[in-house]
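User: I'm preparing a small set of examples for a lab meeting where we compare how different chains pack in three dimensions. I only have the primary sequence for this one, and I'd like the structure in token form so I can line it up with the others. Please keep the answer compact; I'll paste it straight into my notes.
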Amino acid sequence: MRRIWNPGVQEWFGRILIFSWIPGFLIFSASASEQVQIGSKKFTESYVLGEIAKRTLTDAGISAEHRQGMGGTIILWEALRSGQIDVYPEYTGTITQEILKRSDELTFEQIANELGKAGIGMTEPLGFNNTYALVMLRSRAGELGLHTITDLKNHPELKFGLTHEFLDRQDGWRPLAQHYQLNPQNVIGIDHALGYGALGKGSVDVKDAYSTDAKISENDLVVLEDDRQFFPQYKAVFLFRYALPTPAIEALRKLEGTIKEAKMTRLNAEAERTKNYTRAANLYFEDSSGSTRLRQGYGVASNTFGETFPHKLARWTARHLELAAFSLVLSVLVGIPLGIFASRGGAIGHAILGFAGIVQTIPSLALLALLVPLPFFGISVRTAIAALFLYGLLPIVRNTATGLQDIPRALRESAIALGLSPAARLWQIHLPMASRSILAGIKTSAVINVGTATLAALIGAGGLGEPILSGLNLNDHATILQGAIPAAILALLVQSLFDLLDRVLIPKGLRL
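Assistant: Understood. Below is the structure token output for the 512-residue chain.
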């Protein structure tokens, strides 16, 4: 029998197997970082406070990194407790209700003592109370004569668009509805920033908001009075790990009592107007009345407006490629052997294909959320790579199995008749014959990984999802496109690259 194996293919597979330990070592080995890791939630005020903390530490000579928009309360709290981040802005009401799971009112000292048991410290309040509120268009509220939350009881026809976190919080929608005996006919979950657009278009009538949100006055909204005092105090603080160096903690404490509600609202408005959280945060330092304490002994940050766009784009793209490339290599290393086993059929083959198929049906956001609480993962690049690796398995496993199963029976029997060993038949006959199908599966997995990697930004892993999430938060299409267009271009480039690899790695006879 004439050999149809392209030596390039053998060398390609050989190198993958020989160096399979390298990506695993790079991904899963812990790397010590001296930077203070600052986290923030996915809304404007948290982004701005995170930037204020970053500059405060930087001005004090302490290296710091801000991981923007990492998610909701529980994700940030778990990241802080496990050491994935060192600092993040939080609110006393949220700490009591969501973190400590207490329904009674706690004093500031009681909250601090409870947090201390977990090795977490808390600054004194920053100076403002950002409580929850229900808001409506002023014209719509005036038309119906609505002034208080109690008034909503007489209008069950109103459509409520509430953030997903507010729907599930212990101090959120369910207890609020019970407290006020509200029973609206239509309640949906919607992103915080998109909810304002829905209000303006009349798609929803009522949404939850934060009392210091600049969009309230910007969109001519009215805050319904909490006439039965349901919402507790939400005084802004910074939570930090006690393991932080003393100078870092002292620097954060200099922020205590320096941000009043009017100032925070102004900073939020600047962030919404300029689409630049760093610039908004710098307004705090330019206000002598609010930053005198901080200026004592500290220099002024030299970079007033943060990174340039080309630098940010390069950073986003590099991280995006890192996530997609490492996860793809892992998918290939694991997926091809699994596909070989699956091609043999039987219970094991069905189990392998079934597992890969089930993983593919799990929503990507849910898969990230499931991995975060597991040991070793948490809020990290490892978690994003693991999720992308699992998503990339199915196309490779299925295409490998299908390619091997489609080899003609006569060709299999001829290889046996020549006396080739099972390993020789696999390497010299079966894999070359299936190479076209295998590469098609790898190409599909690569394109999927490039697109899905944008979700890594939800857990602070970076990539081109950062500007997309920021744009959604700011309701700014230009910012969204800063991430969406490069991600689409990357996907096209990856597909083109694999088209070229087809010509190099697939035997010419199979290409014809």
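A couple of notes for your slides: Strands lie at 36-39, 64-67, 87-91, 120-122, 132-137, 159-162, 186-189, 206-210, 221-223, 236-241. The first strand starts at residue 36 and ends at 39.

User: Perfect, thanks.
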